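Deviations from the work plan: none for this task. Representative record:
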Amino acid sequence: MAAFRNFSRPAGRSRLDYVLLGAMIGLVVLGALCIMSAVNSLSWSNAVVRTHLVALPIGALAFFVGWSFNYQIFDEQWKYLYGFILALLIGVLLFGSYQRGSRSWFVLPFFSMQPSEICRVCTILVAAAYLDRRGQRIREVSTLFGLGALLVPIFGLIMMQPDFSSVVVTFPAILVLLFCTGVNVFYLGLIGLFAGVTGFFTIAWTYIYLHPELLDYWIVNAFYQLAHSPWYMAGFSVLVILGGYLAWWFFKQLRIFLPSFYFVLATLVVLAGLFGGIFVDHQMKPHQRKRVETFLAPRSDPQGAGYNVLQAQIAMGAGGIWGKGLFSGTQSRLGFVPEKHTDFILAVVGEELGLWGTLLVLGLYLLILWRTIVVAYSASDRYGYLVCSGIFGMFFTYMLVNFGMLIGIVPVAGIPLPFISYGGSNLVASLWALGVVQSVYARRIRA
Amino acid sequence: MAVTKIFFNARLKLMMVLAAIAGGVIALRLVDIQVLRHQAYLEMAERNRTQIIYQTAPRGRVFTADGVAVATNEPSFSFYYLGGSQDPIYLEQLAKDFAPRLKMDPKDVVDKLAEGARTGKAVLLAENLSTKSTVSLQELQLYYPGVYLIEETKRTYPYGGFASHLLGYISSMDDREWRNRDPRMGYRLTSKIGKNGIEKKFEKQLKGTDGGVYLEVDYRGRVTSIIQDKKWSAGSDVYLTLDFKLQRAAEEGLKNSKTGRGAAVALDPRTGAVLAMASAPAYDPNIFVPYSDEENPNQSKKINEYNLAIQGIYPPASTFKIITGAAALEYGHLDVNKKINCPGFYDSGPRVFRCWGKHGPMDFFDGMSHSCDVYFYQVAAQTGSAAIERIERKFMIGRQTGIDLPGEKAGNLYGPTRRARNKTYWFIGDTLNLSIGQGELLFTPLKMAQFAAAVASRGNVYRPYYVEKIVSNQTGKTEVLGKTEILQKADLKPETYDLLFKALKHTVEGGTAARVWIKGLDVYGKTGTAQNPHGEDHGWFMAFAGRKGEAPSIALAVFVEFGEGGSSAAGPIARAMLEAYFDLEQPAAKPAVKPQAPVRSDEDYQELLTSGEEDGSLSEF
């Protein structure tokens, strides 16, 4: 797309998706009320409410900026955008303030911001621009490597802060983006296999680490040795390679002819997953192990690590269908629910507004997701389409992880719920992302 | 371009479907949490918000058939500081005033109080106090607002080791028991549960609902206000079929016997109810529930839980001659008047069997009353072992009595059929051994009592029971558990029973069981001396008795381990039991059970007796 297209807008067609806008405003208003209710009992409540009320107009501004700017400028100037991301991330590593074990904040005299929030959206824009430029070569494997080379510095810098949850949200969003781009499903499967193998080894080793009595069984012991002894690693690698060869031979015997590099790739990916798992296992900190443990058995220690989830569920469950009314939830009020104004804000919604409140939030989220997909479908060019699918992936991940964490199907990962949770940078970035979606909508070609 | 668009469209649609599915799953789970489990989470939320100082409810009492409470409760107190003033001078004053009364160090008390004042939590200063020390503590409650004396109850067994194996005891839960508790029953980690006997068996009924003082706390556990005081409700009372005096007589007798080890069981041959079941050595269940402020002698908490009455198995010895005799009468056409000479030994061919004396010629009644081995060798050799085993099976020897107690042993049946099944041989020596109750035969004392009751009732093999009813203290509802159950009918000919009765009476009137002859009673009995290759012989005594001319109303079995002789060791105990039982047989009216009289001393017990019984005039008629 060398030049901007000159859009001709037939009269009577709206430049704004009102459904998307309405869902967004609904969530933001609900979120503001719930934050006020949640922090009501805290001594620093005024600061929180004030920050949020300051963030709201900034977010609105970001939304309008995103909407009114032609989104194609990000496609055109993607190298500068990429440089901007790296500069922000390096800057926060150099000049950021160290809080709660990670260096991820810029603290300025009037306000502080978390650059990784903005970077999340920018990363999607950059990735979409790169994929757009690949043109017809999109199905080639080199696309994946190119994108990987592009993203590794970003993820690396984020992990250096470290801000694990940021990666957790961005990575699936990129996967969704790749899927919608039309990348060969086999490659996506490989990426999924890699993540799955890594995750499996990590979780299994963590589980064994936390239950040493299992080591009495020789097979468990051998499996655990895999993480520490090079001999076991070598042996296992040989087994995997042998398995790959056998699979290839088996398919050949069945007269199912698949390209043999598929098998080579799959074998390599399993091996990479193994070493990725070993790497993660060695890097993992005790509190992260604890989180995995909590996920595996949330009720094992209700006063310890499982406490947060259990208390959040108690608060939600106590709310019932109709809730206890805004500003009158006792559980969150008395402080049983931790992080109640950020990651666990849904517990407050659930307790005070009941099932209808949580279903309303869920419904509005699904509405946003649906409209984003509709906008992607109606986009006038491939870049708009890709941007919308990436943003869809991001919000989808947010929704899945945050709701999933509360209902106990996803480990606690410290992921906020955009628009509802307190967090100025996140709010501004999310509103900006929706502004970009609106911008795609305004320049659409279909109805 | 158009082709790719369609392709993309499919992937987009797939993503939207995924999102919809995820949304659906989340919505279902939300409904599950917020609607279906709403009540459970609401309760957890309430518990979050309140701290409870529990008050242990009184356990249900246990009464004997004649209305003596043998397990009851007494008050016990805990002393709390719920945090009123935070002034250190005030707290120090309180500590100085409080500590000496319980012989505590004021410094520790000040530390505890300061900690409580700082955190705002309720502080437990002392627990499990007896009434004695609470009088002076009540005074403190007046002077220092914020201190609370909380009343609880504590299990107590007024008669110490009375029927300890049957009553059981209560004690703290171990890890496994705690995990297996029903969460709806409201157990706490510190709750004590029944560990044995009735306390364990009727745990559910005996346990009341604990009360408590409910405090509202914030998330750090700081007390913000006292919400309410919930009263406890007591557990249900259990009524046993035991006869208090009879049980005591049996226990005293066993305790004072030669070795102090043994068991005595008495059944009612009309119903199968257990009138007494004593096992020695016994233990005092009170040692598990001491007061904290009383001098506790350093009792070892190691107790003898072995219930010899149902778990000890021994050869029945000469008492088994009743079965041999019954077999001969039933199947062997025994002429009871035919005299058999006893030269002191019996030559079976391969081996010579000895008698315990040299009795000369004797008929069936003399043979029984003198317990002559040679007589029964002869009879058994003529009748055959198969007939004896048949009678054994009629009386269900070698089977559990089926009493509702854990760990009952079955004993062992001895006979040719059993041998045949094991594919080994039966010799004439086995028949002779069987005829005098030696060899592989094994009885528990309870089995012996069941057998005695079966003979006394002319063939009713009862399932013994020991719980009459359970009466709820809340609703007054009575649950009757005591039911007569005849497991099997030992259907011998009536003449056989007549002759057995005659022989057993003869034994009491002029034979080995003469010790239990009591004026005014029809007593039937048989002694037994079980040969023990490992030490002294064991003494057996089985008897049943009724008032003159009436059907037997008590059947008993007494066993003294290493007691040497059945008559010398077990006889006196049986006699004491019979005397105790028939003294009480005819009280004018059974006194109504007073529900509000938890503890009865011996003086109290005198009131239960009529004037006639007191001077013994009633028993001598």
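Residues 584-601, 604-621 of chain B have pLDDT under 50 and may be disordered.
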